[in-house]
Design brief:
This protein is an alpha+beta fold and about 160 residues long. It has two domains: about 70 residues, Ubiquitin-like (UB roll), CATH 3.10.20; about 80 residues, [2Fe-2S]-binding domain (DNA polymerase, domain 1). It contains six helices and five strands. α3 packs across α4 and α3 packs across α6. The N and C termini lie far apart (about 55 Å).
Amino acid sequence: MPTTLTVNGRRVRVDAAPDTPLLWVLRDALGMTGTKYGCGIAQCGACTVHLDGAPVRSCALPLSAVGNGAVTTIEVLHQDRRGKALQEAWIAHQVPQCGYCQSGFLMAATDLLTRTPVPTDADMDAALTNLCRCGTQPRMKAAIREAASRLHDAAGRREP
């Protein structure tokens, strides 16, 4: 059944059943492979995307639940100033090892900095519920702190 949805600012038409998980629509129907399949039960977070700006686990979100919402994926995260700052800090701190979970973590971290511009360790622990088997969370936290600091400093310079 054809459905129209908004993905990364573009209206797209896909032919998928309403109960198809958003993850498979993104990967299979739209060829957007930045969002990863991890566990399939919304626990690991590798499949995290934003729906109307909020992080969701796309492996367990049926297409029918997207409705008129706007989906944002890792493919356009660099267009968001927070996402771009995080990606740069991720590289500077050499966060990824295997890298499989990183797109989900970056999506979750971008949401965190949107809601909490200068997060504490507790804020990061609460927001980053994704799983990383390589154990790079300490580097992720350092990268988030750096990105938050850069964004905070940049915001201060823009104000009169």
